[in-house]
Amino acid sequence: MKVSASDKIIDGVILLLVAAASFICLVPILHLAAVSLSSNAAILSNKVTVFPVEWSTLAYEAVFKDAKMIGSLFFTILMVGLFTVICMIMTICAAYPLTKKKLRGRDFFLLVIVFTMFFSGGLIPEYLLVKMLKLTNTIWALILPGMINAFYLIILKSFFSSIPEELEESARIDGSSHFGTLFRVVLPLSLPMLATLSLFYAVGRWNGFMDALFYITNQDLYPIQLKLYQLVISNQMSDATATEGMNATAPIPESLKAASIMFATIPILLVYPWLQRYFISGIMIGAVKG
Length: 290
What we know:
The chain is mostly helical and 290 residues long. The chain has helices at residues 5-36, 40-44, 58-65, 67-95, 106-118, 123-132, 150-162, 165-173, 178-189, 191-207, 210-215, 224-234, 239-244, 253-269, 271-289.
């Protein structure tokens, strides 16, 4: 089919708008990267935009020499991996039974789950519960309270419900148990959605720091985002003060903060290419099947 000139113009305008929006989204990241790789003098004189000025790696050298920052990174990777696995297991175990019409009290359980999306016990009761269970200053304080996200649970339940019942009936005729049907039929068909929810869980846990701020006082258990938070609030310095104490062999706080943010952001960005195929498929399937 021949494309008219007006359609080409519209496509071109849409392409330009998308490119402009993408560039606007990238500007903050490019600016942080440029600041982290620029010299102290260039940063203090506000010469840095989206490209490094007077290339310098002092900030990254300081970050990689900080043993606590490296320790927080590895601890966060371990925590996020463990959190994602546990969350997906719990979400699957909750979502799959709720697709069964013969489950007694199914509507009541769904009502309770939806209720938690609008109402919660509050921060203080949650803190008291974590403290009473003696989970403070442990990795479990950052994992157990958020094991199941009600919204993700409903999404996965809806996806499981969209799988034809005939496939499960065929598996049962062949002698498969409920667990066998789940692992051999349902989960292989749900890989795009499982990958999408895993990515959501992982990103949410990677970016979270408020619960660590409440429950963790042991610096060895600080996640990387809490380290960044403390770095940002502890390194506030005026331009005049920074200029007076400027040392050519040491990064200024602004450069150090930018390098630390890039240091904490790049690992989670590297996960996206590995899950991109499943991620896009999961988003499309969720949009179509609801």
